């Protein structure tokens, strides 16, 4: 498991720096990852990258700092926080279509619970916009289990418009980062927190935890045999009882 994680981390890093490592490129990559993953995962990634670079006697690795991973009380995320992130992204001086792509990613994560990396790698053929579902293949999930993701009409409307703006692929790894790198003051709420909004809002609505775990892809917490018996329509019927709509203008 450790070897596979190391291989994935170094391969992803190498592609980002175009196989030519430098301090500036490495910091740029770390700042991008900071938008996508927890401090614990980021610290692990940085440790692997530093070990890899040290094998080649790179002399600037000591300038790369790992984040504080002390345990904190889980951050409470509500609708106002998610809308606040969208407002900050909207203030960035950038072509409208790139803002709209970032906004759509935020909306989709908040109403579906998808991980940032799952969103970035989506293809249009994995999205059934009319039926409001995503069929995530195993190779694109953290747990390596394929799963069905459900989203609401708000995300459906955003995705429909996004099709006209980005015909080949809805998102990219720089969907959020191409905006946040232009910000002097970085947002406190990141895309990874939008998934927390989904989880917390589901609980606030008092809906079944087992279904939430299925939609989030927490398969270690549920019996897979039960998941196999839940159709997309079954999941949608329960999902539609929740109110995730952000109502952002």
Explain how this protein is built:
- With 249 residues, the chain is mainly α.
- It has 2 domains: 2-63, no CATH class; 79-239, hpI Integrase, Chain A (Orthogonal Bundle), CATH 1.10.443.10.
- The protein is 51% helix and 4% strand.
- The chain has 12 helices and 3 strands; from the N terminus they run ααααααβββαααααα.
- The protein has helices at residues 2-16, 23-34, 39-54, 79-90, 96-112, 116-120, 153-165, 177-180, 191-204, 209-216, 224-227, 232-239, and strands spanning 127-128, 133-136, 147-150.
- The chain has a 3-stranded antiparallel sheet.
- Helix 4 runs antiparallel to helix 5.
- The longest helix has 17 residues, at 96-112.
Provide a short characterization of the protein structure.
With 249 residues, this protein is mainly alpha-helical. The chain is built from twelve helices and three strands; from the N terminus they run H-H-H-H-H-H-E-E-E-H-H-H-H-H-H.
Write the layout of secondary structure elements.
Layout: H1 2-16, H2 23-34, H3 39-54, H4 79-90, H5 96-112, H6 116-120, E1 127-128, E2 133-136, E3 147-150, H7 153-165, H8 177-180, H9 191-204, H10 209-216, H11 224-227, H12 232-239
Antiparallel strand pairs: 1-2, 2-3
Helix pairs in contact: 1-3, 4-5, 5-7, 5-9
